[in-house]
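Lecture 7, part B: from sequences to assemblies.

Below are the input chains for today's worked example.
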Amino acid sequence: MEPDPEPKPGGRRATAPVTESPEEVLSTLTREGRRRWIYPTPSPGRLTNWRRAVAWVLILLYLALPVLRIGGRPAVLLDFMHREFALFGLVFYPTDTVLLMVFMVGLLLAVILFTALLGRVWCGWACPQTVYLEFVFRPIERLIEGREHVRKRRDDGPAGWDKVWRKGLKITIYTVISLGLAHTFVAYFVGWSALLDMMTRPPAESWTFFVAMALTTGLVLFDFGWFREQMCTITCPYARMQSVLLDPDSLIVAYDRVRGEPRGKRSRSALEAEAASDSPAFGDCIDCRACVRTCPTGIDIRAGLQMECIACTQCIDACDAIMDRIDRPRGLIRYTSEREADGLRTRLVRPRTVIYGLLLAGILTAFTTVLSGRDAYDVNVGRAVGEPYTILPDGRIANRIRFRVRNQTRAESSFAVSVQREDGLELRAVGIMPVPLAKGEMERLETWVIADPATFERGVQQAEFRLEFADGSTREVEFTLLGPKG
Ligand code: SF4
Ligand code: SF4
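Predicted structure of the full complex, as structure tokens:
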């Protein structure tokens, strides 16, 4: 996009108090439906500085979380293969389905409440799409290919050595970064040490890892190298949900029409004359289009709230810089709400935020209650594969029983199994007891449980087992033994 011409001396009147967007197609498409490449100009300013700081904290966190260990486990691990999930010291196992469901519902409610209050703050400040595109990929592109108008001229021009080496270098650096991001992403699912192990092996030994890595790298490269803002304007489901989640009190980035209209380009002397006038002919917008040129989704915020706006605040910084230059107060484009823009007060407490807040509080209470009531050891008793029972040479009945125990504490432990002697049962372990139980790990113990055939009633007998753990705690479990019916 070519930079707009400077305002001409003498200026001109705005055509209409409020202009609707002349575009009837997405800002990223031409009227013919082809991709319209966006070349947003950077807008240094206080919000961009804050966003950059937040972005780098998030990038460092993203890289560090699979490596950092809390309680002997990665800070975040989503190990679907072994069905084990670690979140900042909390470990969830397959038996924690209810807990995980409550957690997911809580997360969803938190997003809904957050969006109702703060609008698309997530999109503009914390979404990986914005963070990496604006603070990693675009700066590299500017460094290698030059400023926006230079890049556009080169892109529109014929292929040549200058174009080839610059694009080649950019894509090479993008690929290296994408590889780093993809490896970190995979580390969230397999753990860092497993990732390092797979990286050092020949591809044939862990081809699934290489396929996953190649696909993820390709997707990252495709997204940040080419697809870019279309992820927000076309693909992202969260963006599609905004119209339901936002209300007139939600925080948005908006242009102050009352103050800005009628807009019009004019000279500095005309602006100074206006400042001294009680009834200026123009509003504060000088129609310089700096807010449009900086927009990464290519929209004109002056046309009102649009689905494509990711609340990145770049237009705020761009317009504030213009206001400073023309001696007008900052904030012609600012964080506000639709109600505030209409001269009313923004309400934080309103029916939907109260309902979402209450639901979230309920979910958090349920989560804490279920978590605190979770057993230290998850015990599962089952019948081993094979015949339901065996008749021993001395006539007694033997059931092969498997004990599966997971240590859900934060300490090493062990367990031993015994039967109540008065049951007349005998338990023989296949293996050594007590069974060592590392923290977070699950171990199996197979046993033979031998019973007198006379103790069976209609082919069944209820047995009671006692598990003793290294920390002194015990657990009783019942299990039905099978035997001959006659
Ligand atoms: S940057 Fe500000 S002054 Fe310039 S066109 Fe946008 S709203 Fe108007
Ligand atoms: S309109 Fe402003 S806040 Fe919205 S995406 Fe464009 S630059 Fe960002």
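Note for the exam: The first strand starts at residue 69 and ends at 70. Keep this in mind when comparing with the next example.
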